[in-house]
Amino acid sequence: MSVCLETSCVDASYMVLFVIIFIICGIFLVRIPL
Q1: What pLDDT does residue 9 have?
Q2: Which domain holds residue 27?
Q3: What SS3 class is residue 5?
Q4: Backbone dihedral region for residue 32 (phi beyond 0: left; psi -120 to 50: alpha; all else: beta)
Q5: What's the predicted TM-score (pTM) here?
Q6: Using one digit for the tens of pLDDT, what is the confidence trace for 1-34?
Q7: Residue 4, pLDDT score
Q8: Which secondary-structure segment (H or E) carries 22?
């Protein structure tokens, strides 16, 4: 199962992993003010 964008096709597992990392980074950015 893969997700095809305009430029390239990305595996669904990589997309889920990217979303999880993005959410974790967002939580850290919210808890640690710059």
Answers
A1: 66
A2: 2-31
A3: coil
A4: beta
A5: 0.51
A6: 566 666 666 677 788 888 999 999 999 988 876 6
A7: 67
A8: helix 12-31
Total domains present in the chain:
1
* Amino acid sitting at position 31: R
Tokens (6 digits) for 24:
């974790």
CA–CA separation, 23 and 11 (whole Å): 19
Rg from Cα positions in the chain: 13
Handedness of CA 28, 8, 14, 3 (dihedral sign): positive
- The token pair at 21 is 């990392």
* The pLDDT value given to residue 20: 94
> Who contacts 12 (Cβ-Cβ below 8 Å, separation ≥6)?
1, 2, 3
